[in-house]
């Protein structure tokens, strides 16, 4: 299994590829004319997941993805329409906080912070999906089985290609949430309530939307949204 530092480097490449920053002339020649899009659904062959922001060939977007309503052009209006934030746009408050942290850090600490920020940006609009059978006599009780931190960790590696290091952990928030009502403050409150110093013993046994805490090196944490949905 690849170590998380390498995986996060891979994530960084994905995020960089989806960046709103202008492409260099060399990159433009290599990629041809590209446009930035928002995936409205999971794209075939794992090329992108719902909510991903990425660059694709302009012709592919114009002739295939947009007409088939699989994606939208990544404009401010479309981000607002979908109710998601542009992962490549840093608010003034976020910028001030980042600069203040970086000013007081060692080179190693700064590297760990940047890794955490990249992973947070990469996961911002993503929802990990876990399918489970449901008790026929219940509306949402899982049967058989449950979802725990070990299973979520495996799904994170398989579905989003993120393998955590041995000293990095996942802690599940047991209470379902409403993703539409979440904001930065409420997510931070959830993360602060999860004790990363102890092994996670939470077992989720019902369908719903949930939040987990990814604890990284350097004491940084990143939220992970996941949904447990009915498997037919």
UniProtKB/TrEMBL annotation:
Residues 46-81 form the Ribosomal protein L9 domain. The keyword Cell membrane does not apply. One of its GO terms (molecular function) is structural constituent of ribosome. InterPro entries: Ribosomal_bL9, Ribosomal_bL9/RNase_H1_N, Ribosomal_bL9_N, Ribosomal_bL9_N_sf. One of its GO terms (cellular component) is ribonucleoprotein complex. It comes from the Eukaryota. One of its GO terms (biological process) is translation. Transmembrane segments: none annotated. Keywords: Ribonucleoprotein, Ribosomal protein. Belongs to the bacterial ribosomal protein bL9 family. This is Ribosomal protein L9 domain-containing protein.
């Amino acid at each position: 299994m690849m170590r998380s530092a390498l995986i996060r480097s891979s994530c960084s490449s994905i995020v960089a590829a989806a960046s709103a920053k202008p492409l260099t002339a060399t990159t433009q020649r290599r990629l041809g004319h590209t446009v930035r899009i928002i995936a409205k659904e999971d794209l075939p062959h794992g090329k992108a997941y719902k909510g991903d922001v990425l660059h694709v060939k302009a012709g592919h977007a114009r002739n295939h993805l947009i007409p088939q309503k699989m994606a939208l052009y990544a404009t401010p209006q479309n981000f607002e329409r979908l109710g998601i934030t542009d992962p490549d746009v840093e608010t003034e408050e976020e910028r001030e906080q980042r600069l203040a942290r970086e000013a007081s850090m060692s080179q190693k600490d700064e590297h760990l912070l940047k890794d955490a920020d990249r992973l947070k940006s990469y996961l911002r609009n993503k929802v990990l999906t876990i399918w489970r059978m449901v008790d026929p006599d219940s509306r949402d009780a899982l049967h058989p089985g449950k979802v725990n931190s070990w299973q979520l960790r495996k799904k994170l590696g398989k579905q989003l290609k993120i393998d955590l290091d041995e000293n990095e952990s996942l802690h599940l928030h047991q209470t379902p949430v409403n993703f539409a009502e979440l904001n930065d403050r409420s997510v931070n409150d959830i993360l602060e309530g999860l004790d990363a110093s102890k092994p996670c013993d939470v077992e989720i046994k019902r369908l719903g939307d949930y939040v987990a805490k990814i604890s990284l090196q350097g004491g940084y944490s990143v939220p992970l949204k996941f949904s447990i949905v009915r498997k037919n």
